[in-house]
Amino acid sequence: MDKALQTMINNMPEKTGRKLDEWLKILHKKNIEKHSMAVSFLKTEFGLTHGFANTIVTLSKDKNESSEDLLVNQYIGKESLTPIYELLISTIVKLGSDVIITPKKGSVSLIRKKQFALIKPATKTRIDLGLKLKDVDVQGRLENSGPFGTMCTHRIQLQTIADIDAEVIKWLSMAYDKSV
């Protein structure tokens, strides 16, 4: 399991008043099928932050798959992209101790108080890094959001470790700073 996710699960009782297992039982009893509705339910009924609510719902839907399994499955046939993903994560966790890493079936959400980035293995040779940078014009390697729609405002395509350069780190840092 991802270290940041495990830390979040460990902190859940203190931050939310319940352990993960208790939250999973609540969601199981409620039996809400749509992800967004379940997140909204936890936020509205229990006052959870989006990060905790989203993580709980994701883990409830993927109870048969661990976060590690979700990541492994994302990179099947795309193993050459794994070093890029690992460097991105190690760069992102240096931005602050409040980064929440939430693996899903096809991507990994990066959340502070709000989602600020998304990592998606787009093809066998490219990772798309989605960023939420409202009021920032397309420039340099920063493109329109592409496949991310409204989830992210911009995208950067990464094909090698060398692509994670000062410009990418600048944009990541800006997205992190804006996500409070």
TrEMBL record:
**Organism encoding this protein:** Colwellia psychrerythraea (strain 34H / ATCC BAA-681)
InterPro entries to which the protein is assigned, alphabetical = DUF4287 (IPR025629), DUF5655 (IPR043714)
Q: What is this protein called?
A: DUF5655 domain-containing protein
* DUF5655 domain: residues covered: 74-177
